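G., the chain you wanted modeled:
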Amino acid sequence: MKRVMIVDDEKDVEVLFKQRFRKEIKQGQVEFCFMFSAEAALDYLKHHYPVCLALILTDINMPGMNGLELLRIIKESFTDLTVIMVTAYGDEQNYQTALQYGADDYIHKPIEFDRLKAKIFES
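Predicted structure as tokens:
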């Protein structure tokens, strides 16, 4: 089973992922852990590390700590975790910063779920 952490301040993301991965969840192929802030994600990692996460998907634009700062901290403290950045904006500055901080991939919203499924199951 693949475990994936989703970090996004928009709570409707949970419903969306559960709908798009309904079959895979039912078959026990994937399990999602939803965090609605970067701070909550870090708190979870600090208390549950080492966790068996296939990857972390994090939004960039969130109130409080943004996804780029979360990425930087994860790559410094939990170096073996795979992190994919998700954004609704085609901002070159964020893209370059994400690469500099060690992002494993960078995808745009709306998410292409077939592509994302392939990434999850290849990791």
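The mean pLDDT is 94.

Shout if anything looks off.
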